[in-house]
Design brief:
By secondary structure, the chain is mainly beta. It has helices at 21-27, 127-132, 250-255, 278-284, and strands at 2-4, 43-46, 53-55, 69-71, 76-80, 92-94, 99-102, 114-116, 121-125, 142-144, 149-152, 166-168, 173-174, 177-178, 190-192, 198-201, 214-216, 221-224, 236-238, 243-247, 261-263, 268-270. The protein contains four helices and 22 strands. The radius of gyration is 22 Å and the shape is elongated. The chain starts with a strand and ends with a helix. The strands form four sheets. The chain has a seven-stranded parallel β-sheet, with no helix packed on it. It folds into two domains: 1-102, no CATH class; 109-288, Alpha-Beta Horseshoe (Leucine-rich repeat, LRR (right-handed beta-alpha superhelix)).
């Protein structure tokens, strides 16, 4: 593994034909190594005690054909996404918390296990990824596209991603859409669809997700009743800022004391006041 560490880096990565990967690594504090060594590197993490800025140089992808893990998160790197097509062995690209923009299609290439593109400026319709890509979803375990500018509809279904454990699409600019089909994701533990313009009902099939520990559906336009949820492993639940009605399921109320965090605020829910404390009401049922 190679770590690139230094104190401060500002605007040093011009994306021109005359700029080489070795120069890029040298300027972020990596000790000089032969370019022939790059082809054997399997893990690369680039970070500074400041932020890397500018763009990733041309040829960065093909310089690391055996790279499996790439972490360039928490910087201020710009550019039209990151071309990983030359990284034939890549399984874990983390480019979160940067300034990348453009479409996300290019990230769905290799047999990836982890995709983290969160907190960038990506735009476009991610539904095209499912329709047009030959990406093998069965390898994917972790997918985070949150806090971008993605629009259109999100994924209609992800049933091919049967090993997916973490799904976060929160805080994008999706058009209004009904709840995606996720009932055939038995491994799912974390689901965050907050502020994704969801409308209609929460499907009863969500109870099939028996491993679910975190469910965040806040800041949407969901209506009707809260379905029976599988509360056995549920530790975090946020349904606030929707248009949910009816009674909160009794098993759910009875399980609140076992949860780490829950919020039902700003809905139109009915519940038995004797089943919750005043402190709980003020913290998690305001406006309901």
């Amino acid at each position: 593994m190679i770590d690139g560490v230094c104190d401060s880096l500002i605007g040093f990565v011009p994306n021109t034909d005359g700029f080489y990967v070795s120069d890029f690594l040298k300027k972020i504090g990596v000790n000089p190594i032969s370019s022939d060594v790059y082809m054997f590197i399997t893990s690369l993490r680039l970070y500074v005690h400041g932020k890397i800025t500018g763009t990733v140089p041309d040829g960065f992808s093909i310089a690391f054909p055996k790279l499996k893990n790439l972490d360039i998160s928490r910087n201020a790197i710009q550019g039209r996404s990151l071309d990983i097509s030359g990284m034939k062995s890549i399984t874990y690209p983390n480019i979160s918390i940067n300034l990348f923009e453009g479409y996300v299609m290019g990230a769905f290439e290799a047999p990836l296990e982890v995709i983290d593109l969160s907190r960038n400026q990506f735009h476009g319709h991610i539904s095209q990824v499912k329709a047009n890509s030959s990406f093998n979803w069965s390898h994917l375990v972790y997918l985070n596209l949150s806090e971008n500018q993605l629009s259109g509809e999100s994924f209609h279904d992800l049933n091919d991603a049967h090993n997916l454990k973490h799904l976060n699409l929160a805080h994008n600019r999706f058009s209004q859409q009904e709840f995606p089909e996720i009932s055939k994701l038995p491994s799912l533990k974390y689901l965050n669809l907050s502020r994704t313009s969801l409308i209609g009902k929460i499907p009863t099939r969500i109870s099939y997700l028996t491993s679910l520990s975190t469910l965040d559906l806040s800041e949407n336009h969901l209506t009707s009743r809260i379905p029976d949820l599988n509360v056995k492993n549920l530790h975090v639940l946020d349904l606030s800022l929707n248009n949910l009605t009816g009674q909160v399921p009794i098993p759910l109320l009875e399980n609140l004391h076992q949860m780490h965090k829950f919020n039902f605020s700003f809905n139109n829910l009915i519940f038995c006041a004797s089943q919750i404390t005043l402190e709980t009401f003020q913290a998690a049922f305001v406006g309901s």
